[in-house]
């Protein structure tokens, strides 16, 4: 009863103040320009991946099905974070409504967990493609891919959004957040309660959504490397490895920054370090993903050429 009364007393908080990445006006202008370009590239690049995977039949494969899920997730993540930050810089305001702050906390944790699991599914797809090529189409049929994707999104919701809603902290003044968006570690610092339960929940959730998927990714790649080394020709080994290199790069960037943010004790969190790390997985990573997957990918380049050619024919150009 006492805890409930305390929650009601603190529910009058209507907004938070986000300090952002810098207080210097000149640096804020540079941040606005850079992040506007990064946001545009991220949205355009991920929309391109989704469009090509939908329109080009040669990309109707499990790999590009999961990549489309990842691209959709990246658009949602970066769109939840960057536009509000840019608006605050443009207007000179640093406020964010309580409701939007809560949405950012819930959804970013949910999307981050979903990305971990989708990256794990993509690793499994590469494992089957290289280690069981003759059974690939049978194992990774469309029904299986849909089930794996739905499972990833569902598990992410169950292990993040629901526990967080049950353990939402009682927040005390000041309502200032030293961050550029509302994120669980920075919000927990404002709690006037014992945060051990929340920290335990964050750590436990990280084990299920970070460490377990990472372990399975590593197991998949150990098996993949073993299979690649058995290939007789150097050209064959290079071709097999090239199908995994993009995914390995994305996994390294995302899991590395995610573990730094969510698996260290709250006492070791530094607001300035947290902001830098958050820039990587909340802003830079969604921009890099379509670039990493497309620049050296002949399938994506070929699909783009075919779609553009069909557009030219349709419009009579």
UniProtKB/TrEMBL annotation:
SUPFAM superfamilies: Family A G protein-coupled receptor-like. The chain crosses the membrane at residues 30-52, 64-83, 103-124, 144-168, 203-224, 245-264, 276-295. Keywords: Cell membrane, G-protein coupled receptor, Membrane, Olfaction, Receptor, Sensory transduction, Transducer, Transmembrane, Transmembrane helix. The keyword Transmembrane helix applies. Its main location: membrane. GO terms for molecular function: G protein-coupled receptor activity; olfactory receptor activity. GO terms for cellular component: plasma membrane. Residues 45-293 form the G-protein coupled receptors family 1 profile domain. It is found in: Cell membrane. Pfam families: 7tm_4. It is a multi-pass membrane protein. Belongs to the G-protein coupled receptor 1 family. PANTHER family: OLFACTORY RECEPTOR (PTHR26453). This is Olfactory receptor. It comes from Alligator mississippiensis.
């Amino acid at each position: 009863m006492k805890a409930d009364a305390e929650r009601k007393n603190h529910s009058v908080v209507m907004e938070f103040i986000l300090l952002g990445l810098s207080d210097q006006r000149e640096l804020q202008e540079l941040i606005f320009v850079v992040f506007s370009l990064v946001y545009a590239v991220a949205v355009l690049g991920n929309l391109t991946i989704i469009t090509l995977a939908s329109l080009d039949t040669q990309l109707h494969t499990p790999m590009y099905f999961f990549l489309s899920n990842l691209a959709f997730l990246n658009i949602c993540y970066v769109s939840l974070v960057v536009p509000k930050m840019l608006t605050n810089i443009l207007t000179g305001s640093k406020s964010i409504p309580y409701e939007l702050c809560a949405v950012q906390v819930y959804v970013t944790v949910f999307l981050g967990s979903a990305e971990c699991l989708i990256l794990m599914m993509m690793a499994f797809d590469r494992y089957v493609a290289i280690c069981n090529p003759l059974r690939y189409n049978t194992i990774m049929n469309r029904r299986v891919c849909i089930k794996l994707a739905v499972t990833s999104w569902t598990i992410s919701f169950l292990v993040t959004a629901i526990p967080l809603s049950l353990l939402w902290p009682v927040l005390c003044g000041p309502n200032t957040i030293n961050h550029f968006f509302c994120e669980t570690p920075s919000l927990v610092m404002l709690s006037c309660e014992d945060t051990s339960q929340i920290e335990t929940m964050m750590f436990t959730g990280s084990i299920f959504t970070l460490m377990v998927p990472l372990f399975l990714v590593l197991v998949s790649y150990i098996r993949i490397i073993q299979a690649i080394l058995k290939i007789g020709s150097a050209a064959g080994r290079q071709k097999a490895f090239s199908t995994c290199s993009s995914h390995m790069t994305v996994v390294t960037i995302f899991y590395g920054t995610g573990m730094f943010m969510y698996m260290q004790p709250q006492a070791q969190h530094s607001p300035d370090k947290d902001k830098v790390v958050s820039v990587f997985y909340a802003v830079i990573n969604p921009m890099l993903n379509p670039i990493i997957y497309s620049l050296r990918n002949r399938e994506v380049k070929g699909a783009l050429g075919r779609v553009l050619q069909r557009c030219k024919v349709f419009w009579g150009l």
